[in-house]
Queue: 2 jobs
Job 1
Amino acid sequence: MLSQKELQELIIYRFIDAYVDLYGELNVHVITKQFHIHRATASAILTKYKKEKPSNLTYDLSKKRYVKGFTFEKIFLGKESSFSYLNAVELLYSVEKK
């Protein structure tokens, strides 16, 4: 059984797969904003993600973000719909605006 930390990391790994699949790029700010976590935590999770398949993301210095690699594949999300996953994450992690 996964610990709470491992489960959160898996959710974020799948989020990275889905977000990059749909938008073609990602930076740490996107993760911190969506999941309400510290920048250092998001950066560490992104570093672990990149170790799984380094060719999935390439850092673009001029854009200051990671861009989708030519051989990108969803390693954590598999065949699940990226759009559906992002919608589910938005429902679970969104903050009510008052």
Job 2
Amino acid sequence: MKKKVLSILMTAMMALSLAACGSTDNSTAPAAGTDSQPATAESVKTEAETPAGEQILKVWCWDSFNVDAMKTAGAMYEAEHPGVSIVVEETLSKDIQTIVQTCAMSGQLDSLPDVFLMDDQVFTKYLQNYPEVFADLTDSGIAFSDFAASKVANSVSGGKNFGVPYDSNTVIACYRTDYLEQAGYTVADLTDITWDQFIEIGKVVKEKTGMPMLTNVQGEPDLLNMILQSAGISVFDEDGKIDLVDNEGLKEAMEVYMTLVKEGILQEQVDWSGYQGSINNGTVVGTINGSWICATIMSTDQAEQEGNWAVTNMPKLNDYAGATNYSAQGGSTWAVCSASKNYDLAVDFFKSTWAGSTEFYDSILTDLGAIATYLPAAESEAYNQKSAYFNDEAIYSKIVSYGGKIPTVNKGIYWTEEKEALGIALSKVINGKSDLDAAIAEAQSTVEFNMGQ
């Protein structure tokens, strides 16, 4: 089986190599839930280690963090279901995408695992392009209403559910409380506010501390997309066509970002390492990103930072109908292969763990720091424990509650193309190489070309 998959992967690499020729990797920050270090061999249960006669549910996912989370779910399920083995195989995110595409095009769906993890940023694209790969989970008995609606929306097509949400991609604003105090503010002053209010506070903080409020990687429109989703603004219309020109919400969001940079309230970094360093070295007051950024914040070796961080919601667009203080960034979702002979087992497994057990979510939060998008988890004891690092506050229950308030937007299947085009547009305007309207128009034309419109 493994040799067959490797053969398919090699074939896919050769088939896709022409498309890759001449391309460059401009990514600087890894999206939440994407590839990092592979799991060690010791952390992965293989088919060879499975006793003969056992029913096997094979799972593919990337990153030792994700592997360990799935292994925890597997161990809990196996303890209650003798004769079942959950086999987790570490497979890079890009490899999963390539193999899914190749198997769909060749009709060899039986080469896919029973369950696989899919990046939220491409789930919709793959679901629309290769619908035959994904099992319909709509009538499975999984309570999708127990998850944040914005997260569920990533794996919905035609009103049907094709995925089980995994990690939290809820956006949070994190600030150094000691720096805020130097400027005469508390985190309460930055809660439930607009971007206009934030900019005024940022000016004062910069004047009194000499430090910018926020940090971001130059050319990356992640914060821009967070602002857009917080207001329920989509850059694709109902027919899936790109909608940038005459999109007043987009223009307002870009103007906010440009003002942040112009006033020195947001400091752009050359790359992801610079972004992390600005947080860990204490040269910025805070950051706005997915809740997974907590791990970066806590990774510093500066002991004085412990207890001097606080979490709240992000600012919202000024006077924009439907604007909120809540958004999403990154994340991933579990899918069940339509060709799986273990559909019922997969569904029961999810209903017993990822979609039905607060005990499970308590375990991966405590042991791995994995934050759920499963709403009932917010009421558990573990999620309500106070974090000494974050000002003795129960940040995890707060994050889960934020997740239930995120507006749902249509990201379209060309979301990555839109993201790249908007990143270029932002850079051109900020560097004085284009005015805003012209940059937006150029971005629209670029995405339309990539979409074949």
